[in-house]
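FAQ
Q: What does a multi-component entry look like?
A: The components come first, one per line:
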Amino acid sequence: MSKPIILSMKNVSVHFPVKGALPFSKKRVVSAVSDVSVDIFQGETFGIVGESGCGKSTLANAMIGLVRPTSGEVLFKGNKLYSLSPQEFKEIRRDMQMIFQDPFSSLNPRFNVYQIISEPMKIRGGASVDEMKKRVIELLELVGLSEKDLYRYPSDFSGGQRQRIGIARAIILNPDFLVCDEPVSALDVSVHAQILNLLMELQEKLKMTYVFISHNLAVVKSICDHMVVMYLGNVMESGSTKAIYQHPLHPYTNALLSAVLDVDLDNKKERILLQGDIPSPINPPRGCRFYQRCPYAMKGCVDKKPALIEIEPEHFVACHYINPFAQEEINAGLAKPLNL
Amino acid sequence: MKDLMLKVRNLKVIFPNQMGVLKAVEGIDFDIPKGKCVAIVGESGCGKSVTSLAVMKLLNSPPAMVRVDELVLDGADLKDYTDQMMQEVRGKQISMIFQDAMTALNPVMTIGKQIDEVFIRHGKMDKGEARIATIKALELVGVPEPKSRANQFPHQLSGGMRQRVLIAMAFACMPKLIIADEPTTALDVTIQAQVLDVLSDMQKKHEVSLLLITHDLSVVANMADTIYVMYSGKIVEKAKVRELFLHPHHPYTIGLLGSIPKLSDEVHKFVQIPDAVPHPMFKPTGCYFHPRCSHSTLKCSQVMPPLKTLLNGREIRCFHPQNVVDFEEVAHE
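Then the predicted structure of the entire assembly, as tokens:
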């Protein structure tokens, strides 16, 4: 690859302890993300796709230092993010910012627009009030608002405009790396396109790297360069968006794609309906985490975890159905279909 | 017409407050034929949920003020029904599926008991019969192990299961009309597909009429027969589902359809509608959509266009309809 890697995660796991109902009950953990490795290249958009509860937000939080991983390493521009001193971490954290899903709860209702957007600059320090004001106005215009909105409060704005304020706040310190956690799912349909177009324009202008979390596969397809498909804390399929959409291999990816309702009436595809729901991340299945809902599940899927294997250039899949078992395992009966 | 399940004429809902009058629904007409699925599509704040509540007569007055010329359910005009008479209608003749199953279900009652209630109240059954009927109803919507599930509380079920319970409850007494208000918005894609399948199966099997309220055009494309598009309290376009998707006439519908990225698309730029939905207290003059419309003229900003009926039965509220092949139109009575 010619592009340099800006962020890389190596075998990252994030576990959260769960309190039992009784005072001395056994300690249990939710494994929100387990053993995930990704590389994100400079200047591209990296998509994370999955159903709710699959760990996509936790993964993104671990990327920018909001959640400390239980194990594994996060390297941002070559620095080990979780081994830095607090001072160094604060410095480096300026280059990574986040846009949140819900613009109604992510803006302080008691702050006016100027206070909201200038807060990161204030915390960094070293800028006079005039400089900050000038910069805030510049940003307001960049995101499609105007100077006269400067002293208004979030309650005066519609959802789309609030999200623009959130974007302005995120980019005020010129970050290189921006995490967008479902930036449009709380907005009206007719406003989705505005915000997505704005994000893409800004990326072009400011040369930022995006991590784009979404459950909307059609959006991911049109804006992401590389992506991972997650299920219950594991990566099921990863690689270049083009390769994955051209021939999705993992049964889960196929099911996800076929579940997307299309407005194309003539493009009637066969729908694969998954049975059941996502199992609880407390005590997830030992082997492939998808086997309970997988139409191709085999006996070996219950106990043996599939490895993420490169099937073709820039296309990795973790599935025993795609990467068959070794001969001795087949002889041992692992490849026999599992009847649930 | 005889084969209409629901006929609504000139439905208006307003909410007066200290600052003025909030016009949520401004005189809409719609029909639901027997055994068909009709959808009302619109963004948040366009009045689609208020419409559904008004049909059920669930809006409290005050604060809401509801005026309707005709509200006919299968030949009976519900307009002058009292609250007590409506209690006989709700659950038995019309029932509703809500968006968020967690808030629609009672958290301190087992789901079996909640469905039993419907049978006891409207089906005139005793407790034992009701439970048998409940288990059968749960089985119909694909809840596994319905017998033991019936003794569980809502929080013990997953989102998809809870939505199935609501569907089972709505279909319990085989009502004539079911109103589904955003039935799948709170669910994940794979679960959404499951629930929609159940809903459309049940609707076809039992030949009930379904009023689907949603903001998601892709849900509509797979479910509905006829679509009404609402914008800011008015119907702006009505068409059969195929016609609407292939030849949308109203610029708003075109914008809505264009702003949904498709899996088959190759473009990297999204079609956008500028600006946002107007606040219902401060609607613009003339056509409500004109400040966001790329085809608007001076006339649009002064006069509200009338709802015109085209020869093929489509209705449209626009001075500059797009993609219209056949310009002939018949006046709207």
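Q: Is there any commentary attached?
A: Sometimes. For this entry: Residues 5-95+175-331 of chain A form a domain with the Rossmann fold fold (CATH 3.40.50.300).
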